[in-house]
């Protein structure tokens, strides 16, 4: 139980109250129940962190259960991706379960309801059933098949199971109340005929249980104490409890459904249907495209599990939905990467600098720190030579006093190297600068302890030796949508807000130490941002993804 004075969210308060009112800690069991019909996204992270966090808090088991009741949309590949994502986030489940494990028990319970007159086979079309459903203000009307005999219902239901009927010919419905104010209680469908192979049961079944019938009963079979779901299922709670009423044993734990608010993230969508549409229409390269809000996409982009968990902790658990600005997620990425990412030098938009008074053909190796946030990270050697690359934006022929980078007649320090002074520059026929001629002070070497090395200059630039530079593909990712809430416009489709600048691919030049990086390694390109080695990398060609810039520049772009 919680320590006195500790701040609890409302879900934790519910658990604490149950412990005070008769539950023991050994009664607690939680679950994370994804449907394997797509990849997990950032919206699932809150649910994962909530359920597994409760497990850690109370030393209680947490099941990973796949609610696999729709063979049309579900695949083993999605199961594998979900398991991979949960493990990557740092959580371990107690038992791996599937709703399909319970198909036989669910069928037997359905037979029980038919025999008790609480379920019947309806042979109407879906259009006819919808017409009889009524409205929130008007009661529905009974199906003409609602009072079929128990014997006829059993015969038809068994025929459904045995594959004797086409899809849509019959459904099994619970017999509840067609006048209920909660329209979900108006004789909901429990089973439909689907002649589709299941990713686990293959063709063993040709009837499949509906989600509402399956979910609560699976919670009960697994003895889940608290079934936590998002607010969209609040109206389903009455049906959840009605179905449980039909099967529970008073000697066993009865699951308790409670709802929390979905947290939507700005500048993206988190509907699996819409994410699948992005994949199928090739707006992105796949579910793990770094522009996607999927956990796999965020991992590939370079986010850390710690950053995502910290983000989930910060936004917390609430009872009302709201829109979380993606800049908060980016903040947590920067905060963690700042602590762990080695600093390296890379030039993304190069212009050549020739140090005219540096000896021809000479090179030297200079010492530089790996991470000023982590003394144990040590140092490394970087090569210096007569020709180097700097960023094009770091040079202007003329500039005002507030420009602290390189300008004609001005001085800057090269990171961990020397002070240089721009003497002249060369241009091509179109007026673009192609080379900058500089002189250097040989006594100003960083760390040498000389008076010249301690001379203060206002600007420090990153750089890469031309002779030693590695060419690499760098993918500059930005937000996938230009609008903060792209799927809430009544008069526009969310696809209308795709950001055309969400991906830019360039050739960059990197210091040679980066040859040793491996897929998934994260680094800070000094003064530019945080980057991650993409799985497309090979020994012949490095590929880096930009995770996030050093600062949030989106607000300035939006202002313009």
Essential attributes:
single chain; 560 residues; alpha/beta; Rossmann fold; Glutamyl-tRNA Synthetase, domain 3; Ribosomal Protein L25, Chain P; 4 domains; seven-stranded mixed β-sheet; 13 helices; 29 strands; 24% strand; disordered N terminus; Glu/Gln-tRNA-synth_Ib_codon-bd; protein biosynthesis; cytoplasm; ATP binding
Write up what this structure looks like.
Its EC number is 6.1.1.18. Keywords: Aminoacyl-tRNA synthetase, ATP-binding, Cytoplasm, Ligase, Nucleotide-binding, Protein biosynthesis. This is Glutamine--tRNA ligase. Belongs to the class-I aminoacyl-tRNA synthetase family. This protein is of the alpha/beta class and 560 residues long. It folds into 4 domains: 190 residues, 3-Layer(aba) Sandwich (Rossmann fold); 111 residues, Glutamyl-tRNA Synthetase, Domain 3 (Glutamyl-tRNA Synthetase, domain 3, Alpha-Beta Complex); 117 residues, Ribosomal Protein L25, Chain P, CATH 2.40.240; 89 residues, Beta Barrel (Ribosomal Protein L25, Chain P). It is 25% helix and 24% strand. The strands form 8 sheets. It has a 7-stranded mixed beta sheet with strand order 12-27-28-29-25-26-13, with helices on one face. A 7-stranded mixed beta sheet has the order 23-20-21-22-14-17-24, with no helix packed on it. A 4-stranded antiparallel beta sheet has the order 4-5-6-7. The longest helix has 17 residues. The N terminus is likely disordered.
């Amino acid at each position: 139980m919680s320590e006195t004075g500790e701040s609890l969210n409302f879900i934790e308060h519910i658990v604490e109250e149950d412990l005070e009112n008769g539950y023991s800690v050994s009664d607690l069991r939680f679950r994370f129940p994804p449907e394997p019909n797509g990849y997990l996204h950032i919206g699932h992270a809150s649910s994962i962190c909530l359920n597994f966090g409760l497990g850690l808090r109370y030393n209680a088991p947490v099941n990973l259960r796949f609610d696999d009741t729709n063979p049309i949309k579900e695949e083993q590949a999605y199961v594998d991706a979900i398991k991979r994502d949960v493990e990557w986030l740092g959580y371990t489940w107690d038992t791996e379960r599937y709703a399909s494990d319970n198909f036989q028990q669910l069928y037997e319970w359905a037979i029980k309801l038919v025999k008790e007159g609480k379920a019947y086979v309806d042979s109407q079309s879906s259009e006819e059933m919808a017409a009889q459903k009524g409205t929130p203000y008007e009661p529905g009307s009974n199906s003409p098949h609602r009072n079929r005999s128990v014997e006829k219902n059993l015969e038809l239901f068994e025929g459904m199971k045995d594959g004797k009927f086409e899809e849509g010919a019959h459904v099994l419905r619970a017999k509840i109340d067609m006048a209920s104010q909660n329209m979900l209680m108006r004789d909901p469908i429990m089973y439909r005929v689907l002649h589709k192979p299941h990713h686990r049961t293959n063709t063993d079944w040709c009837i499949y249980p509906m989600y509402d019938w399956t979910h609560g009963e699976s919670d009960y079979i697994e003895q889940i104490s608290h079934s936590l779901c998002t607010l969209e299922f609040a109206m389903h709670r009455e049906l959840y409890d009605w179905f449980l009423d039909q099967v529970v044993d008073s000697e066993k734990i009865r699951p308790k459904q409670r709802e929390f608010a979905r947290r939507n993230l700005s500048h993206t969508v988190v509907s699996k249907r819409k994410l699948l549409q992005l994949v199928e229409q090739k707006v992105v390269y796949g579910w793990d495209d770094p522009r996607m809000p999927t956990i796999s996409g965020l991992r590939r982009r370079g986010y850390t599990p710690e950053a995502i968990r910290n983000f989930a902790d910060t936004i917390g658990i609430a009872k009302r939905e709201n829109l979380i600005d993606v800049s908060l997620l980016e903040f947590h990425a920067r905060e963690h990467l700042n602590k762990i990412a080695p600093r390296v030098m890379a030039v993304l938009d190069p212009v050549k600098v020739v140090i005219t008074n540096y000896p021809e053909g000479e090179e030297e190796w200079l010492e530089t720190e790996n991470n000023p946030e982590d003394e144990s990270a040590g140092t490394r050697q970087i090569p210096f030579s007569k020709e180097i690359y700097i960023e094009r934006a770091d040079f202007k022929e003329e500039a005002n006093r507030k420009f602290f980078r390189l300008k004609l007649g001005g001085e800057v320090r090269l990171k961990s190297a020397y002070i240089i002074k721009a003497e002249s520059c060369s241009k091509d026929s179109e007026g673009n600068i192609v080379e900058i001629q500089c002189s250097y002070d040989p006594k100003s070497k960083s760390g040498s302890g000389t008076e010249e090395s301690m001379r203060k200059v206002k600007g420090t630039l990153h750089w890469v030796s031309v002779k030693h530079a590695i060419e690499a593909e760098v993918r500059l990712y930005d937000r996938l949508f230009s609008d903060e809430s792209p799927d809430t416009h009544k008069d526009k489709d969310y696809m209308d807000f795709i950001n055309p600048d969400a991906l830019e691919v360039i050739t960059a030049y990197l210091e040679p130490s980066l040859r040793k990086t491996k897929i998934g390694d994260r680094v800070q390109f000094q003064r530019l941002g945080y980057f991650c080695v993409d799985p497309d990398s090979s020994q012949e060609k490095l590929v880096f993804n930009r995770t996030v810039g050093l600062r949030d520049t989106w607000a300035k772009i939006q202002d313009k």
